[in-house]
Amino acid sequence: MFRTLMTSTAIVIALGGPAVAETFEVKMLNKGENGRMIFEPSALRIAAGDTVKFLATDLGHNAESVKGMMPEGAESFKGKINEEIEVTFPEAGFYGVQCKPHFAMGMVMAVAVGDEAIAPDSFLEGRLPKKAKERFEEALSGL
Question: What homologous superfamily is domain 20-141 in, according to CATH?
Fold first, then answer.
């Protein structure tokens, strides 16, 4: 029995176990280290299949995808106000995330999935409020 267990363990180690997806937490805040109405952190680099849990730390916020700021084939998501939402990101690429009520105030974040170094030129092409665009640019520079 012991020999079988050791052999099985050795085989699993030799072949490499399955990759374990990670979960990252992002706070939705009225005020944080980098200003008012922010996601903290404002940018994440994760692996395909990882999950981001958006925490309703302060009331009045949600997390949802920004139309046109996702990789082709990715599904949009929309959390409810004052509620946590967990989003798994299966597609590699760059995602824009917003708090809908505070989008014009710049409450946005960028999620980079995979190893692509920089966001495509089209990522910031759409019509964005000035403050949101500035914060996206800051977030992307930190990835």
Answer: Cupredoxins -  blue copper proteins (2.60.40.420)
